[in-house]
Amino acid sequence: MSGKAEGEIPGMQENESGNIQDLEKWKEKTAKAENQKAKLLLAKLTADEERRKWELELKRLKDVEDKLAKERKLDWENYQKNLSIINEQKNELRREIQFLKDKITAKKAKCEELAQRFRLKRFIPETKVKFTHLEKVKNEEMHTNICCFFDVSTNISFKLNKGEALITFEEENVTQELLQKSHHVVNLENAKTAVRVRPVELESGLSFWLNVKISRKKINVSDIPNLPIPDEWVKDKLELNFCKTKPGGGDVQDVLYDRQSQMAIITFVQPGVANNIVKWAEYPFRASDEIYVVMVSPIVEKYLERFEMFSGISKRTLLLTDIQDKAEDEESMQDMIAIHFQKPSNGGGEVEYIRYVSKGTNVAYFEMDTESGI
To answer: What is the DSSP string of 315-353?
Structure first.
């Protein structure tokens, strides 16, 4: 038999047991909730950390993108700037190339002009030769050549038009003095005329020394018949033919024979023999009981020295232009001009030559003065 404790409230013990159980359940639930909360907080922290990490990465990527955009913009601006500079340089080069092309064209034209002006004729026209002196040698037999020396210079033409005059002074300084004053007034008989003084600008000319040596020991023989014998036999026959004293031969030192050209060079022992033979021009040649005619000519060596092109301004001659003819005849006008320029008070001097043209045109010729120039 069971009994109840004194003072106990009926049903209270069952309630306390139930509450304890409920409390344990709530504690268990609270523990689970706290555990779940801790997991959620940990997950949140992990997520926050990931978010911050991706935010930093995103910011880094955005910074990189901004940097690349700025670099691309700067590169584009530099590209545009460099492109502009390159285009300007290209245009400048084009202008320079065009300028050089124009300059080359002008140079070519100038070269063509100079080539035309300085082109030499192949043949010098026949002209008179002035003999200056003859040098005698003590022992003529010692000299194997006759030597000739020619000093050749071309005359330069100058066109003189109506109302112009050329005046040549004896002294060079007179021309320089008169050129200081370009205009001069010439007193005529009943009038005056203004005359303009100019230097005489000449075109190009040339001068050279021509040395000529004529052998006194050697001759050329041409038109030698083509004989059906060896070359050595032909040489022997030539030697025998030209060693005869008649008509003017002598002892032969050497024979050079060329069958193809039908020519030979014969050298004699004594100087002077060649002179006697070349006088004939045609010389008899006996071979194989036949007499042929061969041509004989001197051996001449020619070479040039001091070949020079020259052009410039005449040192002693002036050109007078713009002359108004107020005299009765050309000679009177010429005399009055000469009188004016002879006077020292007018800056003149002794006149060597004057030529005035009142109508039409005349041509004057200048020659090279080896001592004082043109």
So the answer is: EEEEEEES----SSSHHHHHHHHHHHHH-GGGT---EEE
